[in-house]
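hey can u run this one w/ guanosine-5'-diphosphate bound, need the structure tokens asap thx
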Amino acid sequence: SNISSKLSFNGSLDEPDLDVDILEPRANATLLMLARNSETDTAVRSVRELEDRFNHKHHYPWVFLNEQPFSDDFKTRVSNVVSGSVEFGLIPHDHWHQPDWIDEEKASQARQKMVQENTIYGGSVSYRNMCRFNSGFFYKHPIVQKYKWYWRVEPDVHFHCDIDEDPFLFMENNDKLYGFTISTYEFHSTIPTLWDTVKKFIAENPQYVAKDNAMGYLSDDGGNSYNMCHFWSNFEIANMDLWRGEAYTKYFEYLDSTGGFYYERWGDAPVHSIAAALFARKDQIYFFEQIGYEHNPNTHCPKVAGLWSGKNCSCNPANNFDYSIYSCMPQWERIQ
Ligand code: GDP
Ligand code: MN
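ok here u go:
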């Protein structure tokens, strides 16, 4: 791999080294970012960091999605830092915008109430569009459809350690479906009726609930109430079969039909997390201790002996969100 990279560096300044590492196995996976043109600087920085820490050895293809056409500047600058192929996709109108059957009067009242309560993004329609898109549509995008695995990346995140083992292959070889690095509590005011809706769905569709599920992570009282724990979805490495399968498809349709993405402010993080915890076995969900990751204001920094020092980590191991009182790692660990 080193030799090939050097050859390509010495050989051509323009061509990406697509033809290297032919013998190294690779998963059917993409690095996926939803972004706005206004986020070009921070998008490029996130891409550059993940390339330096991981992808320069693998050349997984990148996909960028946006409900508006990406600017030439965005495309040129992103293309400049990727080590493999890259595609820029436009999100179909109906996969993004608030559906016509939503009662806008009711939705706007809900937004005003949430603004008064100081709920984060409470007044934003575009944030709600984004959450609904990330919950039920990104894996249906024509460009994304050909892939099985994705790694969700956001603008302005940081990858603090070398990632030597391929997380996609690790997950594939170990029968994992969903991977996370940070786990935290949702704000109750954004999802007041989500859990009741989920309970109704699983009462009507008990066949979708996995036997060895992770309900004990979501609930402290056997499923009666939701403890607000979720995997922080700005980082996700997952198998899209989980979202494309019958259980999640029906689940998303059921949730969406209540209008909760607009009448409340349901986040894709609790929507994904509840589904992963209930429809997958708990051993199919994986905590990536070894991946140093930061999304403002939280950082997961590897604490296991040797991981921090051995992987050139730039994060401060004393500043590890796992030990924060806002972390749900205790709930995750109690079910292991
Ligand atoms: P936060 O992490 O919850 O504070 O929300 P972000 O602002 O980081 O948004 C989450 C992801 O959705 C990021 O990848 C953003 O770039 C993306 N995003 C948010 N709003 C929009 C939008 O209106 N259009 C597009 N194309 N992407 C958006
Ligand atoms: Mn973000």
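Residues 154, 234, 295 surround manganese (II) ion (ligand 2) (CB under 6 Å). anyway lmk if its weird
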